[in-house]
Amino acid sequence: MPAQESWNVTLMVSSDGKTKTIVSAHHAAEYRQGEKQEIRLDGGVSVQLINSDGAATLMTAGRGIVHDNQDIEAFDNVVIRSADNTVIRTEYINRSSQERMIRSDKYVTITSPTRTIRGYGFESDDAMKRYKIFHASGESFSK
Question: Which of 11, 4, 15, 41 is closest to 26 using CA atoms?
Fold first, then answer.
């Protein structure tokens, strides 16, 4: 049983007075087990990752989990859009709060204005400026 539930919720994570992450969801349920806590989100989840330059990376998913260390997992039709219009589509991601890295071991498609890369597994910084894709295939467009 959840310790508490909320509907149409927005969570803000900040550090040193600066907002780092904004999480919104239709439904949130907080679970506690001893000292551990997690917030399970469903009904549609939106996450804004605010980069050091103030630009935001937007992630949407069907459901997610915010862990007590502020790591975020997202599931079901995950779409991540960076400020430069790079788009990642997958079924699962894990975002490390401490490292500010996004990772997945699932099938992923990364689309930018000039190329599309597909593969299994990837990792990227929050801004999606530097990313690695594992077991990749893709298309590149030239003018």
Answer: 41
Q: Which of 134, 105, 130 is nearest to 119 (CA)?
A: 134
Residue 60: which pLDDT band, with cuts at 50, 70 and 90?
Answer: very high
Instruction: Quick: pLDDT tens for 30-39.
Output: 999 888 999 9
Above 80 in pLDDT, residue 140? no
The correct CATH number of 4-140 out of 3.20.20.70, 2.60.450.10, 2.60.40.10, 1.20.1250.20 is 2.60.450.10
Domain parsing of the chain, residue ranges: 4-140
Polymer length in residues for the chain: 143
Cα separation, 46 vs 41, in Å, equals 10
Nearest CA to 29 out of 38, 18, 19, 16 is that of 38
Which two structure tokens, joined as six digits, stand for 55? 């630009």
Task: Residue 23: name the closest of 40, 46, 43 by CA.
Answer: 46
Q: pTM (2 decimals)?
A: 0.85
Using CA atoms, how far residue 116 sits from 56, 66, 83, 140, in Å, is 22, 30, 17, 6
46-62 in b/e burial notation, b at 16+ Cβ within 10 A? Answer: bbebbbeeeebbebbbe
